[in-house]
Write a structure and sequence with these properties.
Length: about 190
């Protein structure tokens, strides 16, 4: 591999990200096999909405799962189009089989930033043994222009949280879970 020395010295690896890597199971599996054969650390960023057999096939090839949690189960279908039960079943499969998970939670003001939502994230993190960290991410309106060009209404048109505001929510989660919580803003 051309950059092997870089990866060896930096401790870096590869992350398969979106769209949704699990929507392309054959490519994802082949890519991860080649990465592992090259000795690279592998991560998959996913919504978790996939057939469980797709996850079972690649599970041994993934070192870290970056798992998006975007809404309460009662809101999941309306806000994401995905079935929460499938996402939850897959998350628990990963955890029960020893996978390492980071929950990644975009905070959209007025949509998924309530106390109820934070309590849900905390309960999910505490009850899922594979969760090593929670990331709170500031929502960014980068897709707003695309929505306009497509003639669609952007239901998520909202201001972004500042780092200080997210840090308050992160501290709440730390206190509820005892798990590291990181804050990411753009």
């Amino acid at each position: 591999m051309k950059d092997k020395l870089f990866y060896d010295n930096s401790g870096g690896g590869v992350t398969l990200s979106g769209g949704e890597p699990l929507a392309h199971p054959v490519f994802t599996e082949e890519f991860l096999k080649k990465a592992k054969d090259s000795g690279l650390h592998t991560a998959v960023e996913t919504s978790g909405f996939a057939a469980v057999h797709s996850i079972e096939k690649i599970f041994p090839l993934v070192d870290l799962w970056l798992w998006d949690i975007k809404a309460l189960p009662s809101q999941y279908k309306d806000l994401t189009g995905a079935d929460w039960n499938i996402v939850a079943e897959n998350l628990h499969f990963i955890s029960e089989h020893g996978g390492s998970i980071v929950l990644r939670c975009p905070m959209i003001p007025g949509i998924n930033d309530s106390e109820e939502n934070l309590n849900f994230i905390a309960a999910l993190a505490k009850s899922t043994s594979g969760v090593k960290q929670v990331d709170l991410e500031s929502y960014h309106p980068l897709g707003t222009e695309k929505h306009c060009k497509l003639g669609k209404e952007n239901q998520f048109a909202a201001e972004m949280y500042g780092k200080g505001e997210l840090e308050i929510k992160a501290e709440q989660l730390r206190n509820l879970t005892g798990i590291p919580v990181m804050v990411f803003t753009i």
